[in-house]
Structure formats: C-alpha cells, structure tokens
Design a protein that fits this description.
This protein starts with 9 loop residues before the first strand and ends in a 6-residue tail after the last helix. Helix content is 37%, strand content 17%. It is α/β, with parallel strands linked by helices and 83 residues long.
C-alpha cells in the first residue's frame, strides 16, 4: 500500500504481518504520510538508494533477517545528518 504524501514525509513500514501493516498504513496515510510497506527487510534495503525515508517502523522478527540487523544496515546507507 502506497499513497502520495500531503506533507512530504515518507515512512517505511517493515513487517511480515499484513494485518498489522494494513492497519498502521491506513492510519498514517489518513494523516497525510506517504507509506511504503515491505514484508521483508531486504525488500526495503533494495530501494533505499531511491528513497530517503523520514521514519522506519519495523518488527524485530522478520522472515529474512532480524529487525536490529536491518536497522544497522539502514543506518549505514543513510546520509549523514546535518549539523
């Protein structure tokens, strides 16, 4: 589920439980956020070069890798924060 953002904020939602991601995505898009849903962490990593999400929400138990490992990989790909 993906919808255009009203406020320019992109959120990645990473979890294999589609009933949870559907509910969260519906609520966030209703608030004007663009939400991209991924069932596996590596799916999100594959397009991270194209996007820079403002927030990543994910479960810790993912089918392909642990959420903490995915968080470390996302941080390595993120551009440095402005000082």
């Amino acid at each position: 589920m993906q919808q255009e953002s009203d406020n320019g904020q992109l959120i990645y939602l990473i979890d294999s439980d589609s009933s949870i991601t559907r509910l969260i995505a519906l609520n966030l898009t209703a608030k004007g956020y663009e939400v991209k849903v991924f069932p596996r962490g590596h799916d999100a990593l594959a397009i991270l070069d194209n996007d820079q999400p403002n927030l990543v929400l994910m479960g810790l138990l993912l089918p392909d890798c642990g959420g903490l490992e995915i968080a470390k990989l996302i941080r390595q790909c993120a551009p440095p924060s402005p000082s």
